[in-house]
Protein: Glycoside hydrolase family 3 C-terminal domain-containing protein
Amino acid sequence: MIMQEPPFRDPAAPLHDRIGDVLRRLTIKEKLGLLHQYQAPVERLGIGPFRTGTEALHGLAWLGPATVFPQAIGLASTWDPDLLHRVGAAAGDEVVACHHKDPAGAGLNVWAPVVNPLRDPRWGRNEEGYSEDPWLTSVLATAYARGLGGSAPDDDGPPAVLKTAPTLKHFLAYNNETDRCTTSSNLPPRVLHEYELPAFKQPIESGAAVAVMPSYNLVNGRPAHLSPLIGQVLRAWAPGDLLVVSDAYAPGNLTGLQGYHDTLPEAYAHAVKAGLDSFTQDDDRAEATLGHLRAALDQGLLTEQDIDQAAGHALAIRFRLGEFDPATPYDDVTDSVVNCPEHRALAREAARRSFVLLENDGLLPLRDVRKVAVLGQLGDTLMEDWYSGTLPYAVTARAGLAERCEAVFCEAVDRVTLTAESGPVAADPAGGPLGVGAQEAGLFDVFDWGGGAYALRSVTTGRFVSVDGTTLVNDQPGPNGWEVRQTFRMEERPRGTLALRHISTGCYVGAADDGVLCLVDDADQAVWLAMDVVRSGTAEAARLAAEADVAIVVAGDHPLVNGRETEDRLTLALAPAQDAVIRAAREANPRTVLVLTSGYPLTWTTGDLPAVLWSAHGGQEYGHALAEVLFGDADPEGRLTQTWYRSEHELPDLLDYDIIASDATYQYFRGVPLHPFGHGLSYTTFGYTGLRVRLDGDVVHAEVTVTNTGPRPGVEVVQFYTHQQRSRVKQPLRRLRGFEKVRLGPGESRTVELRLPVSDLAFWDVTRGRFVVERAPHRLMVGRSATDLRLSAGFEVEGEVVPPQRGPLRAACHDAYDAITFVDASRSDGDAVRSDAEGAWILFREVDLTGVTTCVARAGSTEGGMITVRLGDPLHGPAPAGFPVPRTGRYDHQAIPVSLEGVDGVHDLYVVFENEGVTLTVIEFGAGA
Structure:
């Protein structure tokens, strides 16, 4: 007798019907089991376990050796969506192969790409993102996600069966690691709609990404995991079901660090109603989470319909991955694809095309070079970051250059001895404890990773000093792990001595009674150490540089030190010791090339360098790619996707998310950057001619002719920007609207076109809560970067004129502000503003008060206070109304009516808070009887 398969196993049935069939067959306990990262099997229905969350940011990560591509910021610097699609496809293949080998360890829901716009380069996770421009981010993220998901490059939509299920990280307004679980990102409506949301829109709307992960932070006072925008915006964009997965341990923060709810059943119920479908909590121990969800159901905080909706989203992704089909297109993928020759070649291509030539006086490409000196801490090593796979092999800068010519090398670090009052410090030759009082001083190499973070390597063992429990040992290959335990700060002490302070724990290095170095809590117990330099790194670098035809200084960051997940940077400056090596090499040999390798912009102090080349950490093929670019086998194709500022002092506060008010990113920055957004030199030159712009209905058409005016083939990234020249609001100085990468031989020309829908010129009108295209003149500009714009032309747009506003005036939808914070109007929805100081204000421009005689403010304060309405000026303008604000609870905003006298016509209206801690949600006007 042949058993008939249930309807949910019929691939020809509509997805909605298949999901509904499963849900009807599941008990409530089984449905709840689908709401955790580790979804429980339902053996009676033949449904296996499922796990969300395989990391694949720039290749398969955390699951052993796999092809390691350049970091995400490096992939982005190629400005090549096709390349990112191919890298995503390769990473997706390796995820599938690993899944077939170990289904429990490698799930098909991948947590990539990261689409947070890179607003501030000090963000510890800068290397995970693509660009400070949200549109460019969306283009590149869509390409990478389509590759991960199995779409062909020319497909209009997602494939019938997904290869993997890409997840966008991290929603929303997340660019700080400092107190990331407790800080709230102030997000005015224009910044939300014009800057933050667009990065998410295209990947979701196109179907390339089928899942989203909320971020750890709060946004306008409400935890991002509870954001109403999940349902109101993200799911409205999605062409199908959108899975929403929590970040690791974030659900527990709702009652813990964030204290937003009193009980976990209450918090988890709110999360599910807000749109969260999968709880990443307590690793693979789902019992507690499911117990809290069951309690929420029993307490009436959730309904079974709520559970069905969340479970349905989880099931939809599993159906789309082909889990319940007889076969999928990916069943034959084996682990032979992992680090296969094709993927190694792709890693090399991606690394080569990601290099950005920042400066060049003609030294590059290298010619007639027989001997190079490779200098610096990064010259003969490759770094893995937190989201890397394990490098299957490593072609370093030294190795890559040694294949082309004679390459001499030194790390250019100081070799030192450490001596305490009771004797010298030595390392156990077996990698064990460090001790004081040895007969002979041990030798240590000192690595400066910037920001005051140092690592020490024992010369005896070749291993780095670390902390095992509280004892100092020397047994590690370098800084590593989630909690890096191999870095120290050096604090000055009397008579030229120093104390070592362990960065991870904050403890000092002291000595036990037996002389073993160990951690102590009290600074007074720290051992005072004399550090004597036995061999100078800068002197050695200078000597080798002087003897070589060319000096190549490879400098940069360690991805796990002085800026990473959980740790923001305080400075953009290169590590001082590395900076000194550059200076020494340049003085010894004028033919010095600086090769920067970092996940973020850097600054250095040595001027007049003949050539500077940058890349992100480039993966396993870095050295081959570097040699190909340095020797001119390939034109440097990369272009910056971030502004490189001259100093961190040009940046606003790390927690200031209002890029418009703070003049941040290339769109609003008014200074002269070290290197602008879009910058990157070629080994040839390009000319721009014949820019033509016309408006045809609802589309702006532009074309320009680009010519290779130099002697060799080259690659140009033609960039189009616009600027609205008249507006009701502050407009960007320039905004990227399109780009095209062209490859041209000497003397070759090509016409590059732009087709820009007029609707893309819209800005968010806070007065009416929608996008608006204004009637205004615009300027279209084309060139090599955001500031190297070769040609421009004007055009006029016949759009709307924003009329005066009559209200209600929502406090969060103001035109300008001073000393206020955005807060949640209620736990579930809405934004309000709260005063941070006496005299704080918000401005509403052009408010029509014709015929208005009454005014009602909805406000509250735990201490009470006063709000004054002033016309034209926040200090001295006429004050037709004042609102005495009563003492209230946090969300208990009271309606406070007052009469208005002697007002008429259109005015700029300032709402002035006379006290700190007053919350306002809305002001409404009316006419008396």
